[in-house]
Batch of 2 targets.
Target 1
Amino acid sequence: MAQLWGGRFTKETDKLVYRFNASISFDRKFFAQDIEGSIAHVVMLAKQGVLTKDEKDVILKGLTGIRRDVEEGKLQITEEYEDIHSFVEANLIDRIGDVGKKLHTGRSRNDQVALDMRMYVRLEVLHVDELVKKLLGTLLDIMENNTDTYMPGFTHMQKAQPVTLAHHVGAYFEMFKRDRSRLKDIYYRMNYCPLGAGALAGTTYPLDRNYTASLLGFEGPTLNSMDSVSDRDYVIELLSALSVIMMHLSRFCEEIITWNSDEYRFVEIDDAYSTGSSIMPQKKNPDIAELIRGKTGRVYGALVSMLTTMKGLPLAYNKDMQEDKELTFDAIDTAKGCLALFDGMIGTVRFRRDVMEKSAVKGFTNATDAADYLAGRGVPFRDAHAIIGRLVLYCIDKQCGIEDLSIDELKKFSPVFEEDVYDAVSLKTCVDRRLTTGAPGPEAMKEVIALAKEYLAKDWQDEEHVKLF
């Protein structure tokens, strides 16, 4: 069992304890970050005169050789090592001899794992952001192509007022925009380097932490060594952001599932994103949407678990923090997979425009506009509201819409009604007259779509201090 801390102990660790304590089975994901961090540490140590140039060159050659051999499959990361740090250091010493033992000068596994986790999460923030941006592009395409696709808007799952599919999808566009904003905030807030904090109290070696931070693409070093090794706020923030992303995906999936039902028939999900039944040959199930909805709870669980793990920990590092990795890795992989699948599914959905429009017509979604029609002709709005309420009851009894009534029938409810009421309560008029910013009217949507295009043309990841490692 390859360990870095055996000097203090007189007997070997119990095998069950060793397996329980070891993290190599999951922190092997940090391999690239561990090598990059070690390279930067060695370069800094040589700059500060802690290592000679020859020592630096030998260690760097060993580290890059290990990286190459792992990437090419010539060297396997096995579970005989306690963690990824042990794997790298043990293989380095095996290759270059005692000079490899100088790699760990001026650092602890506490600040080392803090660095690896921070670099890994930082990179994954960018990857998740790219997937959200790609989904936004898909949603924008749907919006552009459906500014005149009429459908009912809902409150309380009841038909409320007519909107367009572009407007409905635009609501999710705004949600995912906010998700990207949260990811950006997390990136900038976490982008400080903990390496050099040591176990918790820094080190007596003359480290240049600013230089190390710059080599690794950080804004600068963290400013408190105890916080540096015990901070997992950025993990919690990412899990929170992923939970909100999953919540947005789940809400949209719920609507797709509902719209896909035979009672609605608003959409037809592409065969590539559907499954069938083993017994019922007619079935075409929205399994992908259902699974995304279901996996939302899995990501929520990671967030709650991490909050619970951290809530009682005193300063500084505690072994409990090892629990952050599997939770975070799984949540990241789950969210990324769901984003990619949802993007493919929504991009291939066929929206049944005729069914949507017919549903809006039949649902009294023009009732508010009918009340506004009366109010525009001098009827106090509260009275107009009551008149249209009675009118709707009458239509329900007759199984027809407001627009199906004759002018004589309408005048029985109010003498103010004239022939122009039919145009006033048409779906097109109901939508077109809503021109306030953020409304479904064509001019308002045109403005919003232009802003959405402008938003997607810019990318915070293109900013100079955003670096991929």
Target 2
Amino acid sequence: MIPQKELESKVRHIQLHSRKAVLELLAGEYRSRFKGMGIEFEDVREYGHGDDVRTIDWNVTARTGRPHVKTFMEERELSLYFMIDVSGSGDFGSAEMTKREMAARIFALLAFAAAHNHDNVGLILFSDVIEAHIKARKGKSHVMRMIDLIMTHTASSPRTDLDQALDHLNQIRRRRCVVFLFSDFLDTGYEDALRRTANLHDLICVSLSDPLEHVLPAGGMVEMRDAETGDIRSVDCSDPRLRNRVAQTSSAREANLQNLCNEIRSDLLELGTTDDYLHELIRFFRERNTRSADAK
């Protein structure tokens, strides 16, 4: 457990650093990618030359005998929901930051960018239960309270249930929004829930990991504890077969998640606790922007 004074210092650092970074760099990248993404149904009209056939309203077309298309209006405000995994494995970190602290820093950057653009931000913390739900609202003070909650919340369970968390979001939020899902994805059986969420929302998966989850530390016998089950076992880190198995398991999990995100057309941002997360965020936004421009 982090001492309270150290925790308060970390929260203040995240808040101050994030606001500065947003003003200098991130707000423009955020605005260029997300502003105007939200649309809602407005009316129908007769089909005209050049209209996108995907917007045809087949019910009205069948009723009138003439092709009609749906028209939409751009939402002036955007809503973002951040879903953050606060299960036991998120408190692991072999360097300066745990995975949860990395999530808090990235959340702060994106949430302050949203506040800077007068957009609404909501938050869901989850383990294998919904730990906290903050409804989407505007404002920097609202963001600061959520940063504090992410860093200070003590989860009621060490385990993860992505399926339940995603279904909770889909039940409470039927209107399309941008969803950032932060997790290490050390779970199974969530694939269908991820598909449903990607169908309803603009879903971005943020996969967080620590270097020691990919490569075992050099040395001999090491005692390790599973953060979610509490199981303790001694492992021989010098065993080449074990080292190879850990690396292969990590690579397979990453490949499976990437393939799933490709299938459901959801973006995936993979970050390690030692990465330059601000640089990676800006790169991510620019690549997303390029893909959107190419698709038009």
